[in-house]
Design goal:
This protein is an alpha+beta fold and 300 residues long. It has eight helices and six strands. The chain has a six-stranded antiparallel β-sheet, with helices on one face. The structure holds a DNA duplex (14 and 14 nucleotides). Keywords: DNA-binding, Nucleus, Transcription, Transcription regulation.
Length: 300
DNA sequence: TATATTTGACCGAT
DNA sequence: ATCGGTCAAATATA
């Protein structure tokens, strides 16, 4: 099963947000039950971002479904990375001296926090034409799998913010190992917390995830943190107030934004893939809904 | 201590 | 000489 249609992406975004919301609720119900590795603010921000994503995807349907995503992937053997989770405009670019079929540009209102691949930052430069610096990333499997994929990311516009990510080369690494660690990891955290609660309701959704023994870091998270600090700095200049910055940033946020720090995992031997995640989620979706109703009744 | 990021140096292209 | 991309030592982080 492929995870390509906008509908499926929207469903995933909503499910991700739902998991974050569940965790937030768990924490609000019983602050001691949570290990506190993720701040309440970050959880809330993730929830807002996920719904923004879903809304963006669904409201974009009339024009983008046919000509942008499907068309480009079917025409080219090296499509942009999937799953794509931000509202963005993808464009093939011509770059003299390189194979243009392997280069992609992606503009989005927020830094891409997860594009299906793991990246390692290897440089950052001031660019003549822009006040914003450009960050350089290469595939985290650059050495392990001799993967030559790279990307640049740069904020190219303020108000509304536009972040341009340009992809170069194609991934020769095993993408099933590269993709979906974030979702897997996030789901692990939420599942752990949910398991504890669901037992109270006589249910047992504990699943063998194997992921807590793995260790990896998400460049995208740090990438986002950098941008976040830059944005905060800009806000401070204007408002001189950190709380205002938080509000402004929250309103401008339109992607899950990496605020949710996943647990460590080495990822290199993960076998979790799209279909696993989707089936798993769909299987528990009805239960989650019922669980919400039960909780609402129980705590009201 | 291992791994990732930061940041000035280096280098090729123009 | 300047610019943009990459390297790699220093630094940060878990």
């Amino acid at each position: 099963m492929e995870m390509n249609s906008p509908h499926e992406k929207a469903v995933q975004a909503i499910m991700y947000g739902h998991r974050c919301a569940l965790r937030l609720k768990v924490r609000l119900d019983d602050p001691m039950a949570d290990n506190g590795s993720v701040s309440t603010y970050d959880l809330a921000k993730s929830i807002v971002s996920c719904f923004s994503d879903a809304i963006s995807i669904l409201s974009d349907k009339p024009k983008s479904e046919d000509d942008q995503f499907s068309d480009l992937s079917s025409r080219d053997s090296s499509p942009p990375p999937t799953p794509q989770r931000n509202q963005s405009k993808k464009r093939k670019i011509n770059h003299s001296g390189t194979n243009s079929s392997e280069n992609w540009r992606d503009d989005s209102p927020a830094p891409i926090y997860y594009d299906g691949f793991l990246w390692r930052k290897y440089g950052q430069k001031s660019i003549k034409k822009s006040v914003h610096q450009r960050s350089y990333y290469r595939c985290s499997y650059n050495i392990d799998h001799d993967c030559g994929a790279r990307k640049h990311e740069q904020k190219i516009k303020d108000n509304p913010p536009v972040y341009r990510t340009t992809y170069f080369g194609h991934h020769t690494c095993k993408t099933t190992h590269n993709q979906d660690h974030l979702f897997t990891a996030v789901q692990d955290q939420v599942d752990d917390l949910e398991s504890a609660r669901m037992i109270r309701f006589g249910e047992d959704l504990v699943q063998d995830k194997e992921s807590h023994t793995r260790g990896f870091s998400l460049s995208a998270k740090h990438e986002e943190d950098t941008i976040k600090e830059e944005t905060m700095d800009q806000c401070r200049v204007i408002t001189g107030d950190d709380q205002d910055c938080q509000h402004v940033m929250e309103e401008n946020q339109s992607s899950p934004s990496g605020s949710y720090t996943p647990p460590s995992s080495s990822g290199s031997e993960s076998v979790m893939c799209d279909s696993d995640l989707l089936v798993d989620n769909l299987a528990s979706w009805d239960f989650y809904n019922q669980f919400d109703l039960d909780c609402a009744r129980f705590f009201s």
